[in-house]
Amino acid sequence: MLGSEKVATHDGGDRPSGAPVSDNQTQTPSTTPAVDTQPVRVWDLPTRLFHWLLVVGVVALVATGQIGGNLIEVHLKLGLGVGALLVFRLVWGLVGGRWSRFTSFIYGPAAMLRYLRGQSRPDEHVEVGHNPLGMLSVLGLLAVLLVQVATGLVADDEIATTGPLNRFVSPRWVSLATGWHTENGKLLLILLVLLHVGAIVFYLKRKRINLVKPMVTGDKPLPAATPASRDSWVTRVLAAVVLAACIGAAVWVNSLGAVAAF
Questions:
Q1: For a FRET experiment, which of 29, 64, 69, 75 has its CA 20 to 30 Å from that of 6?
Q2: According to the model, what pLDDT value does residue 34 have?
């Protein structure tokens, strides 16, 4: 009599031909379950207002600086306003919402390399606030803008406009500051702005990541366990107090001298 034919099973064993297939023999490899996401507040209202006010201010500064003439006084006021915003952001980077603080997006060289290799650690939260490349963009823009404002405070166009702090600086430094402010600094600022916009377009088109929407709504779709930024009325009142102090400081600086050539 012929022996029963045996059929190989997926686990390496054999079963007789025609024998019923058990549940565990028909299971397919399981897939990793999708992580549930929900809107998480990443950018608090003060940070969002700062961002969009800075966008408007920088565009207006470049435009009025290029046109010159009677718009120099407007250029001055805008420069003082941008200076106040920048100081506000420095303070807010210390006391603001979780993801607006510098400690949340200052990455070292090792973290930068991991990000570029796609090997970032979960505890680095590169997908929440600014990622390492975003850090370079943000810090670069802040630094260049701060230098532009500082040099504008002492600049002299040798026509009718000098910065309010011009009289406190030697002629040699005034000349260096004016040259940087009107030439190299201006071009560097425009270049960084274009790179910033290009990065936003790249992330939207190639990675399908919208970086603009969260800066409008404040929220990002993230895992439910992601810690959110504080954005309560207490936070907003604190931001208003800080901004008022920064504006007051800008007004005081302006009172120290003549119309500044920002």
A1: 29
A2: 57
